[in-house]
What does this fold into?
Amino acid sequence: MTEGVWTLSNCYLKAIGYFKVDTYAQRGVRGVIRNGYLYLTAYNDEGIYKINLSNSTDVTLIPFGFTSAGKSQTGSGTCANYLFMVNDLIIGWDYQIKPDDTVVQTVGSTRLLNLGTPLFQYKEFCFGWGGNYGSDYRMCFLLTPYLASINNLSTAVVKTTDKTMKITYELTEEDS
It folds into this structure.
């Protein structure tokens, strides 16, 4: 791990995160790291900064083209997660940042209640842990659309206009 202090001229950032222990622990995370860059929402919620972690002069403001609501995506009383990353897609409350840094405006999320951690991805699943006022939670989400095959094909079968396909499945139940 490397620690340093940078001066970022003309950048208006929100706090990257916070952690506080009082009668209970509180934490908030406002940024994600993708491919060596820190993505952090601009203070006015009108864009996101892309900051190269190995070169403090490589800072880009990616404008949204709208003003985000800037809400947390978690509904826990003790934790706030403002950005998630699934595969290489950065997900904010009412926007997504595609792997090529294109911004897609969305209508807004449904909060992931009681989630206190970032989402941890393993294959087609996302896991999270959290708690709320004395209760502990463990969550598992299946990413959809999930392409599954009983034949374990190496690639998806794609129908094009020049092909006619008929796929027949025979399902049998076996005792374990």
